[in-house]
Amino acid sequence: MTTDGWETVIGLEVHVELATETKLFSAAPNRFGAAPNTNVDPTSLGLPGSLPVLNERAVELAVRVGLALHCDVRPSTFARKNYFYPDMPKDFQISQFDEPINVGGWLELPSGTRVGITRAHLEEDTGKTTHVGGSGRIGGADHALVDYNRAGVPLLEIVGEPDLRNSEDARAYVEELRQVLVAIGASDGKMEEGSLRVDANVSVRRPGDPFGTRCEIKNVNSLRSLGRAIDYEAARQVELLEAGEAIRQETRHWDEASGRTLSGRSKEDAEDYRYFLEPDLVPVVPDPAWVEEIRAALPPLPADRRRTLADAAGRPPSDGEVVVAVARGLDGLAVAAIALGADADRVLTHIEHNLAVDGADALTALSFAALVALETSGALTATQTKDVLATLVAEGGSGDPAAIAAAKGYEAMASDALAGAVDAVIAANPEEWSRYVEGDERARGKLTGFFVGQVMKQTRGQADGKAVTALLAARAGG
Amino acid sequence: MPARISRQDVAHVARLALLDLDDDELDRATEQLGAVLDHVADIEALDLEGVPPTAHPLPLRNVFRADVVGLVLDRDEVLAAAPSAEDGRFRVPAVLGEEP
User: Fold this and answer.
1) A141 and A233 together in one domain
2) Does residue A1 lie in a domain region?
3) Which helix (H) or strand (E) segment is A13 a member of?
């Protein structure tokens, strides 16, 4: 399937479960993983006489997200979205409709692209329905079981503008949004637990044409699925259009197993939710002073942190290692280590390749910088440094790297000892040596590996590979 | 005066509300809903320039509760009140179509 000559247009809707203690409208716990129907109260179950009362913390987190996404925080109201489905026992979901709390913001991706945010509004999550019996597919199910633990959990629905043009950027958008949400404490950002759920609106067009008819893709449960679903859907639409057929606006479900999107809802008036103002809730009008207080308390956002680290490391903010360091939350460590004089390139390399481990966040800048200094001075080889770093982190992150290196017997080889080892290896392998001396660049490259390996063996890994390479070249006469 | 709501619209709304109305009931509902809409339309006679829409009749805003866990219901008690339960969950008929 080809998409040559076509442009994909993507807008994402992300539902985020807010990290509150209780539900949006009642005091039942907001906790993932509890036994079914144990986090329920009369309001979660929509029992007669129960009334919603808004959770102040949920509003605060919604404002926090709005500010982090550069939205206008404004007076808002709640409405009833009416539909019949057993996941909401009262037959409506309370959601913000025409007056959402946040409108008109943007999110900056690591590449520097800004994606518009249409709105970010509060609503309650629904219960979880499991179909059982029959073929296991919804259509063939015998009956369904409902767990209302999730019913009423505070959600923020973040609606993005159709500014994305490929699945890679769509993934980057969700990843960046996730990092922002985690950084500001609004959500744990766990896609695998449903804390962050993504629906993708996908359409295709000839570049410059108006937007095409879009399909909404649901049931995308990971970043990988998101990318695959968008690519599949765009190709499906292009194929239809090239065959002269029209795209039908519809909801489609991503099927992970078959790697396809399948047509979903067909009931034509299912979208008619007959919203009306929720009479049991009064308007929310955030006090400007409160909003400013929340703004002042926001931590630096990932985009700001990338700029800070990039400045310290002398790289652009879009640099891959800079992005990784911020994504892992190790940018503070990197900036501090660099400020202590550690070589920025080595610092970033270690963070990307050797610090994707538990406990890395406890590593102190002082210990890390001291270790990098040992490596930079040549006192430790790259292999030894990596090993010392692992031990340093395993032992709590604040130890003395020199002491750890000494305990491992990693003492810097005196240069005459290294030269002796190289000479011994040359003497023991005269045939390889003459091929090395007489060989062209390619042959030398191959044999360098052999000799470095032999020297490593002889010195039990204490030799510096680069120094050995230099010695070999010198012995061969350049 | 043209009807403010058609019989067809009423049938549509009834279907959305899962109401099974017969012909007589549809006629009656059409007439009654029309009367309600006529009444609401009286507002159109007023000069509302600069008057913000009313979101709630009570002069209240920002009614919040603290984010503190309170009592939950006992599951066995809750499920005992349900028509059918299984595995700690409410048992309901299989739902055709997709969730909204």
Assistant:
1) yes
2) no
3) strand A7-17
User: Would the CB atoms of B75 and A37 count as touching at under 8 Å?
Assistant: yes
Are A382 and A430 members of one domain? no
| Contact criterion met (CB below 8 Å) for A274 and A301 | no
Reported as a single tens digit per residue, the pLDDT across A60-99 is 999 999 999 999 999 999 999 998 888 999 999 999 999 9
Instruction: Find the length of chain A.
Output: 478
Answer whether A58's CB lies under 8 Å from B65's CB: no
**What confidence tens digit (pLDDT) does each residue in A9-48 have?**
999 999 999 999 999 999 999 999 999 999 999 999 999 9
Q: Which residues in A lie closer than 8 A to residue B86 (C-beta atoms)?
A: 145
Tokens of A462: 């204490």
Q: Does the pLDDT at position B45 exceed 70?
A: yes
CA-CA distance, A338 to A353, in Å (whole number)? 17
ipTM of the complex: 0.89
User: Chain B partners of A82 at a C-beta cutoff of 8 Å?
Assistant: 16-17
At A233 the three-state DSSP class reads helix
User: A35-39, A100-104, A457-461 — which is least confidently predicted?
Assistant: A457-461
Answer with the one of A244, A275, A294 that is the final residue of a domain. A294
Instruction: Please say whether the beta carbons of B81 and B88 come within 8 A.
Output: no
Q: How many domains does chain A have?
A: 3
Query: Do A227 and A370 have their domain in common?
Result: no
Whether residues A182 and A242 share a domain: the answer is yes
* d(C-alpha A152, C-alpha A127), whole Å: 8
Mutation site for B-interface testing, chosen from A145, A157, A250, A253 by largest number of B Cβ within 10 Å: A145
- Classified as helix, coil or strand, A463 is coil
**Which residues from chain B sit within 8 angstroms of residue A55, using beta carbons?**
64-65, 67
Mean of pLDDT over chain A: 92
The domains located in chain B, with CATH, are 7-45 (1.10.20)
Q: Are residues A111 and A236 in the same domain?
A: yes
Boundary residue ending a domain (A407, A438, A463): A407
pLDDT at A1: 43
Instruction: Determine the residue of chain B that is closest to A143 in CA distance.
Output: B94
Q: How does pLDDT run across A210-254, given as a tens digit for each residue? A: 999 999 999 898 999 999 999 999 999 999 999 999 999 999 999
* A2 within a domain of the structure (yes/no): no
Identify the domain containing residue A135 by its residue range.
7-294
Sequence length of chain B is: 100
Please check whether residues A172 and A265 belong to one and the same domain. Answer: yes
Residue A255 has pLDDT above 80, yes or no: yes
Distance from CA of B93 to the nearest CA of A (A): 5
Most confident of A440-454, B42-56, B67-81: B67-81
A270: chain B residues, CB-CB within 8 Å? 97, 100
